[in-house]
Amino acid sequence: MLGSVTDTEDVLQDTWLTWHAADRTTVRSPRAYLVRTVTNLCLNRLTSARATREHYVGPWLPEPLLASPDAAEETELADSVSTAMLVVLETLAPVERAVFVLREVFGFSHAEIAGFLDRPEPAVRQIAHRARSHVRSRRPRYDTDPGRRAAVTDRFIEACAGGDLNAVLELLAPDVTVWADGGGKVSAARRPVHGPDHVARWILGILTKPQMTGVAFEPARINGEPSLLLTASGTPAGALTYDLTEAGITNIRLQVNPDKLRGLRPSGLS
User: Fold this and answer.
1) How far apart are CA 258 and CA 270, in angstroms?
2) pLDDT digit string (tens) for 222-269?
3) Can you tell me the distance from the alpha carbon of 16 to that of 37, in angstroms, rounded to the nearest whole number?
4) Pairwise CA distance, residues 180 & 21, whole Å
5) Which of 1, 121, 176, 258 is in Cβ range 3.0-4.6 Å of 114 for a Cys bridge?
6) How many H helices and E strands in the chain?
């Protein structure tokens, strides 16, 4: 719902405090009460976040979350929590996002969602239809074969480590774009970089900068999909996620804002 590990933890803490203070004898359905509470707290956060991001420095990307789900979780949730999906959800209005997540990810009925949001059921159906159409038109069509993704990830790491421009170019799709989120806290491109040659040279150029000395790429499962974890002396320094199509790597997203890396540390998984 939020695309932020820190905001999620805050919402869950606030929900627990609300539940702890509630008169349980008046709560007919604890599940509905908790979902309603979480949803409305998320809506408040989303509304505030949209105003804040108008002044964000450079591209805004969701926070990466390092995890190792089992096979069942991977199949069911990987697409829902992928960076690509979170970026698409960011283009929805807060209420549209809430309705989409509650309906498409968690499977609540329109009637249940109407109760959570205090809105008429017909209105919720319209919002759900509009949000679903919006997401479908923007959701990238990419290769979800984990074997191929793992192989491409290994080849990408090898090409970058060797500074091999041609090897990097071979992995990139013709329409590749890279977004880098430094949040004004660390050096990062303020605008998207487009095209295989520009992207490849930008990536290899970044790796030669003094501040990148000692930074290593390693395979990791981030936001439910095979990705790259950047580490410096064993400490997480960033995350690189990407979409993979038949043509190659596209939609590369580099998250290096230090304020958004909590989910890459073991404590972020507690």
Assistant:
1) 19
2) 888 888 999 988 889 999 999 988 899 989 999 999 999 988 876 444
3) 10
4) 42
5) 121
6) 10, 6
